[in-house]
Amino acid sequence: MRREHDECGDTMVQTVIVAPVLFLLIMGVLQFALVAHAQNVAEAAAQEGVAAARRFDAKTSDGVAEANSALDTLGPRMLRERRVSVDRSQTTATVTVTGRVLSLVPGVKPSINETASGPVERYVPPQVDGP
Prior knowledge:
45% of the residues lie in helices and 22% in strands. The chain is built from 2 helices and 3 strands. The chain has helices at residues 10-53, 60-74; strands spanning 79-88, 92-101, 111-119.
C-alpha cells in the first residue's frame, strides 16, 4: 500500500515564510508615510521660523523660537535630535530644520533636512531720479 502525500503543515510553513515579508512590507509603507509627514512638519516649521526671522529688527533667536514652537505644535515627537539653525544677513533670512524621523523598520534611520529662506524686511530709501 502506498500512502498519499500528506499536506498537513504546508499552510504553517507558508505562513512562516510569507508573514515576515508581509510585515516588513507593511512597516516599509508606514515608514514612508512617517518620513513624508515629518518632511511636511519640518518644512512648515522652517517657513514659520523664516517668517519670524525676516521681520524688521528681528533676531536669529526669534526664528529659532518660532520654528521650535511650530515643531512642538505640529509634531512634538515627529523629529528626534532636531536642530533649528537660522542665518540672517542684511538681505536674506534662512532657517534650516534637521532631525531624525522615528524608525519602524530595523536598520533604517531616515533623517530630514528642510530649508526656507526669504528677504529681510528693511527700510530702503527711495532713489532720486535725475539731478
